[in-house]
Amino acid sequence: MGIRDDFTSVAEQVPFDNETNGFDAENIQEAIEEVGAGASPGYTFSRPGDHSGDTWLKIAGGVVSNRSGIPIFISNPILTTVVATCENLNTYDVKIYTHDGDSINLSLITTLSVISSRRETFNLNISLTEGKQVAVRTTGSVKNPGVNIQLKGSS
């Protein structure tokens, strides 16, 4: 056995509590592999200014996400967390979509309601499709919205 195998043997013997975090792993070794294999770095969508009605948020670089969204490049992707933030105490909905680019095959995945808050966290377990793009839209009145999403899956 090499050095890594010695650590693996120990890590496999240490239990891992998966009750509150969405992991499937039951020991430390599996948890390390689950994180390394399929967690996304997190993705941010935002749009500066005051917005009312329907507003598509932008990805890094300023492209509107319904035209060119964040690509889903992991296998068996699952949307696990959405954090919605804004400048003021606003009430609005966050709508998560997938599409093939340029709003082609645009499909609403979920609608999340933020009620008079500056920050709201939603823990989810929604399957997505590898190869699609993610887009985010707000409806209602919101100032300087930002939406961060986290995906998990396998490599």
Record keyword descriptors for this entry.
2 domains, two-stranded antiparallel sheet, 155 residues, mainly beta, 49% strand, Jelly Rolls
What does this structure look like?
It is a single chain. The protein has helices at residues 3-13, 28-38, and strands spanning 43-46, 50-51, 54-56, 70-71, 75-99, 107-127, 133-140, 142-143, 146-154. The longest helix is centred in the first third of the chain and has 11 residues, at 3-13. The protein contains 2 helices and 9 strands; from the N terminus they run H-H-E-E-E-E-E-E-E-E-E. By secondary structure, the chain is mostly beta strands. Strands 1, 3, 4, 5, 6, 7 and 9 form a 7-stranded antiparallel sheet that branches. A two-stranded antiparallel ribbon has the order 2-8. It folds into 2 domains: 1-38, no CATH class; 41-154, Jelly Rolls (Sandwich). Helices cover 14% and strands 49% of the residues. The mean pLDDT is 88.
**How large is the share of residues in beta strands?**
over 45%
How big is the Rg? 18 Å
The CATH architecture of the largest domain: Sandwich
Helix-strand makeup class: mainly beta
The CATH first-level class of the largest domain comes to Mainly Beta
- Overall 3D geometry? globular
What letter string, H or E per element, gives the SSE order?
A: HHEEEEEEEEE
What portion of residues is helical? Answer: 10-25%
Number of helices: 2
CATH topology of the largest domain: Jelly Rolls
- What count of domains describes the coordinates? 2
Mean pLDDT metric: 88
End-to-end separation in angstroms reads 26 Å
